[in-house]
């Protein structure tokens, strides 16, 4: 009636870019699934004023701009000042007869903002509560500074900076004080909120004055999403011991039963190791508690493995040597009753390599929970054409039970269905091609194969290997321009952490190669290379449904799970990938013959490490690899600055931890098989259908059901709550199991 177009309106809305990559997006999918499964669950985090930076590409280089996402307000959030809570920093610890007291602290207030999380068509709405930092009104005015009132008010910014900006590192630890403040801020506010809610419930029964916390772990489950909220473990101990006056052993028993920890990476540079000096300054009482946890932990190990000092050193929460550091993963393992990885292969590596000493001590603590994605956003919302086509064949129930996609196997030889699936993909490609033309002024051929590699830029994800393949195809076209090539549009996108020099060089290289390839008349429309600027969720929703080939090419053993891989599979792309992360389970579900699997397995990588990886060996043996590297090195792609990429080449030869050259040959050969199949549109589409039919396991609904049953001990309910306008029966106190996660 207002003459507005809904799709145009949706385009205007800013992404809430409050995470870096897979981790934040996974949390969002989990919230959607928890609400859809009717779990009484809350998602807690920080309401960053500035989210992940906006990426601009200028002259082929990444340039960062602040993401002022709240500029026009956020209609979905509601501030809840009535639930504002104090968070303490700095100060000192005083030991009194009645116990430890943390005094002379600086206070920052945590103001919660609530965002509704609706379940899918079940009249359930959960809450995501994000904390914003506010200075108390007497900030810097308490004591003697009254002289400089103006400066005191200006200094309020110091407290409020805590929730100012998201640290833009993915899979990398940066030990900055502000980051530790953020981590403790979200933890301290959240635990107070949880305890307030527990005390208000009928379970938090008070004996005269004191709350009885015996039932706490039966009513509350806290899942630690990586080690970033690890300070929750000593914080809950501080509340129980110092404030609620519980004996240590009882407090520790309750704490362990409450927490569970999900590990999301095995890269050593990503593991959080906070300097003891920093923790001592910022959170002196927590350091004491961590020391006490560690002492009891080491005493126990010494009793099980007497005279094994090296084991004590390996398993300690405190790393000695150089600057003393706290290993936050070790703290999470010791303080949790369940630990999980996020794909079968990753959980195996966690158990047998990264934390093998801990698994030897308590093997039953370690589990697997393979990641998933919400089919509501990643199929219905982003690909309505395909969703509708599937519903016509198997009904609409699959949206809540994605395992029903297996019914599509019946239609794998149905010529009409095959044509329809191909038609939906073609329409999505045309739509995306138009978008690229409008936004980037590039003309692309919608009948070319859309070969897409979108994810954070990182050496382990091996965008460089893709780049070498592009150069190889380019050289083949120039060598034999008359030969029939399967036309490709290679789309690479993703952000590099601003301080990650190599990742930024990789972006520049891709853009330099694109510049040459896209302007070479002998290539024409056979090969186009596009770097997708500012890759983010809203752009993923456009590119994924238009993709033919999904690139999942990390070195085996480095990508914990990946979730983009699942999104592509569900949206009718075929996967070229290594046996890494969830790719392994995708191949297991669809049959390895329905994915393009190549390259070293985890065992091969280990064997190569043992033998010693020599990049020159591959360079000298593979003429096409040698040619590509010589071109990069010789300035073919940077004639104005011939040694522009010397750092990249030097890394590839001398310290490539991720062994790009070792998988290059297998990758290029596998890509030839991809091109060959693409020529046979029908055979390609049949393989697509087999993939979609096998994607059911990768719903985050399945993942959350597993967390609920194996870790949180709650039962998902598919009861549809009656809408608020219908009278409710007397079901008020009959909720099945009142546990909140």
From TrEMBL:
Listed under GO cellular component are: cytoplasm
**Pfam families noted in UniProt:** Phosphorylase
Region described as Disordered: spans on this chain: 716-741
User: In its UniProt record, which GO terms are filed under biological process?
Assistant: glycogen catabolic process
Q: Which reaction does it catalyse?
A: [(1->4)-alpha-D-glucosyl](n) + phosphate = [(1->4)-alpha-D-glucosyl](n-1) + alpha-D-glucose 1-phosphate
> What functional role does this protein have?
Allosteric enzyme that catalyzes the rate-limiting step in glycogen catabolism, the phosphorolytic cleavage of glycogen to produce glucose-1-phosphate, and plays a central role in maintaining cellular and organismal glucose homeostasis.
Subunit structure of this chain's protein: Homodimer; enzymatically active. Interacts with PPP1R3B; recruits the phosphatase PP1 which dephosphorylates and inactivates PYGL/glycogen phosphorylase.
Which PANTHER family does this UniProt record tie to the protein?
GLYCOGEN PHOSPHORYLASE, GLYCOGEN PHOSPHORYLASE, LIVER FORM
- Designated name of the protein: Alpha-1,4 glucan phosphorylase
- Species in which this protein is naturally found: Centropus unirufus
Q: What is the lineage of its organism?
A: Eukaryota, Metazoa, Chordata, Craniata, Vertebrata
User: What is the gene name?
Assistant: Pygl
